[in-house]
């Protein structure tokens, strides 16, 4: 872990983060927050729908709007987050929240893969899910909310350790 | 399902939010007592990251000094390279509540007759 962080800190990204003026970290942090907000805002709406809220709106209508916003939000958050981590990466070794945050992100992404291969999700644009499929989707929506809430909470706490 | 998972979320949130606060975001993890330390600069001022930092050695121990955010430290005149490595400085601030952590949230740095008041609103 220390070696990985030391390498990241010594990388061109680490140097760029440290050597470009006093506002660099703040601005990249802002971008990170915008990415996280887009990701979680979209995921929250989609997951609540998967859990059965707003049944009058079709799942395909909601997924059409939320999935791309979540995907772009994730890409923005991940890219900027790498920059924040690279600034002084070695200082985060031993911070327990890092070890909660990244596994939570990993689980969240595994859940995205599981959702995408499930027949319930693959069919949702062409027909209404069956009651059984609805339960599957609800479980995945619940897991998703849990993962991203945990990731965000642990992420926010990193600086307070 | 919804109330079950939101219940779990609330529990996780509550556990995480009750975790000890420290380091650079708040003052709660640092003692209320005023703390003063004189030492020799081991690593000069760095303006990288969420807060400016420097390291000083005092009584054989290296102390991590957490300063103001980079822009505020700069406004106080504390830029990189101004205080040379090896210089003797005196700092005022609040040390970490954990006696095993040699970290000080630093409000003022005194060096060579100059005072860098990086937190001018704090006494």
Unreliable spans of chain A: none
Annotation field: number of helices of chain B:
2
Strand content of chain A: under 5%
Oligomeric state of shown chains: heterodimer
CA(first)-CA(last) distance of chain A: 18 Å
By secondary-structure content and strand pairing, the structural class of chain A works out as: mainly alpha
Mean pLDDT of chain B: 85
Radius of gyration of chain A, whole Å = 18 Å
Distance from N terminus to C terminus of chain B (CA atoms, Å) equals 52 Å
Percent in helix of chain B: 10-25%
Describe the biggest sheet of chain B?
Answer: 5 strands, mixed, barrel
The CATH fourth-level homologous superfamily of chain B: Nucleic acid-binding proteins
Classify the beta-strand content of chain B into a percent band. 35-45%
Please trace the helix and strand order of chain A, writing H or E for each element. Answer: HHHHHHH
Task: Walk me through the structure.
- The complex is a heterodimer of chains A (161) and B (123).
- In chain A, 78% of the residues lie in helices and 0% in strands.
- Chain A has 161 residues and is mainly alpha-helical.
- Chain A has one domain.
- In chain A, helix 3 (24-50) runs antiparallel to helix 4.
- Chain B has two helices and six strands.
- Chain B has helices spanning 2-17, 70-75; strands at residues 35-46, 53-58, 61-66, 88-95, 103-111, 114-117.
- Chain B has a five-stranded mixed barrel.
- Chain B is globular and about 30 Å long.
- Classes of the chains: A mainly alpha (161), B alpha+beta (123).
């Amino acid at each position: 872990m220390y070696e990985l962080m030391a390498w990241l800190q010594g990388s061109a990204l680490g140097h760029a983060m440290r050597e470009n003026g006093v506002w660099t970290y703040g601005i990249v942090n802002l971008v990170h927050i915008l990415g996280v907000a887009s990701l979680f805002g979209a995921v929250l709406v989609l997951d609540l729908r998967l859990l059965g809220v707003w049944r009058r709106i079709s799942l395909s209508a909601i997924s059409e709007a939320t999935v791309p916003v979540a995907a772009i939000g994730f890409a923005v958050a991940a890219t900027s987050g790498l920059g924040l981590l690279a600034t002084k990466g070695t200082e985060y070794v031993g911070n327990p929240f890092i070890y909660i945050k990244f596994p939570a992100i990993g689980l969240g992404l595994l859940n995205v893969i599981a959702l995408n291969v499930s027949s319930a999700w693959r069919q949702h644009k062409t027909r209404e899910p069956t009651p059984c499929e609805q339960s599957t989707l609800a479980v995945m929506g619940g897991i998703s909310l849990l993962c991203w809430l945990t990731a965000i909470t642990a992420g926010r706490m990193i600086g307070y350790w | 399902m919804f109330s079950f998972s939101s219940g779990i979320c609330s529990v996780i949130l509550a556990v995480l939010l009750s975790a000890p606060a420290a380091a650079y975001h708040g003052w709660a993890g640092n003692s209320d007592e005023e703390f003063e330390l004189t030492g020799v600069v081991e690593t000069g001022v760095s303006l990288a990251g969420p807060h400016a930092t420097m390291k000083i050695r005092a009584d054989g121990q290296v102390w991590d000094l957490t300063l103001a955010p980079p822009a505020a430290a700069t406004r106080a005149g504390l830029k990189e390279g101004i205080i040379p490595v090896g210089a003797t400085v005196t700092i005022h601030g609040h040390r970490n509540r954990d006696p095993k952590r040699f970290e000080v949230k630093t409000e003022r740095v005194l060096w060579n007759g100059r005072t860098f008041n990086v937190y001018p609103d704090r006494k």
